[in-house]
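lol ok so funny story. i was supposed to be doing the assay writeup but got distracted and ended up predicting the structure for this chain instead. priorities right. anyway since i did it might as well share w the group, maybe its usefull for someone
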Amino acid sequence: MIQLVIGTNRPDSNSGKVAAHLQEMYTARGAEVGVLDLADLPPEIFSPSSYAEKPASFAPFAEAIVHATGIHWVTPEYNGGMPGVAKYFIDMLTFPESLVGVPATFTGVAAGMWGALRPIEQLEAVFQYRSSLIYPGRVHLMPIGDLMGEDGRLADEKSLERMEKQVSGFLEFVSKVKG
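and the output, tada:
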């Protein structure tokens, strides 16, 4: 299963809107896809005691990552980096088995002109440290406000084409790696 991760806990985020498009693209190709929205993380996960003992309510999130055949992470850029909740989520995953050997790809969403370049680089560094297999076909969407239609959906054809290419390439990459 491809696990889409909405890498922010901001309600009604543009990352979530982009992830909805990606989910449709994976489904259209017959791929099984799940969505983890960091906005749905249980509040007790943020207790300092959760480092020593993970709350039971976090188990579905952790299991979704452990059982993923591939991870497609959609991240916004906040203050030149990935959202703190994204790093915290990764820190809460079991080490090392959660990400070892798991293919991963990244889509960046940003209001500025760099399209979440820095947060994708930061995520890739963390995923590489955790021994994930990075698919190089990143997509950067910027400025996201100009790419969205009045209905709140991505309307830019070139961006949608790049995402389609990313999804197809990532599925092929996962197939080759996971055989």
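The radius of gyration is 15 Å. The chain has a mean pLDDT of 95.
back to the writeup now i swear
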